[in-house]
Amino acid sequence: MTTPLNVLFLCTHNSARSILAEALLNAMAGGRFKAWSAGSSPRDNQQPHPLGLQVLQKAGVSTEGLRSKSWDEFAAPGAPTMDLIITVCDNAAGEVCPIWPGHPATAHWGFADPSEGDAPDSEKLEAFRQTLHLIKRRLDLLINLPADKLEKAVLQTSARELAGK
């Protein structure tokens, strides 16, 4: 495979789980994948969650260029064509998505929101660490799939099967 597979991670606000997944896949991909993230309805002036950025940095993952953005950017003319779109929160999975150029494969990998609730930052930081670990485990499986499992005709099935791992 010479051209990387384009993967878009979606969540509602694009501040935590989808940002973690984007940064991790880009760090792990070895040129086989190119990742982005977006939200169905990011808040005005939404930024990546500081605790998410902190756990990425502590794990040695670059946070350069990470920003919260709307999924509309990826449905617009001139946007990169996605091969795979993965929702990482249950809210985004249930929403009506835009019509994606190229009709990419889709999958849902639900992860609990580490930023939810009013727990102290120390507890939320641990939740972010755990979420990062869970996402990394799933991405390890994805990037190590054999080439035939990443062909357009079987990519959706392959990605959806990883949801249970």
UniProtKB/TrEMBL annotation:
Keyword 4Fe-4S assigned: no
Keywords: Arsenical resistance
SUPFAM superfamilies in alphabetical order: Phosphotyrosine protein phosphatases I
Stretches assigned to the Phosphotyrosine protein phosphatase I domain: 5-145
Pfam family, one: LMWPc
GO biological process, one term: response to arsenic-containing substance
Official protein name in the record: Protein-tyrosine-phosphatase
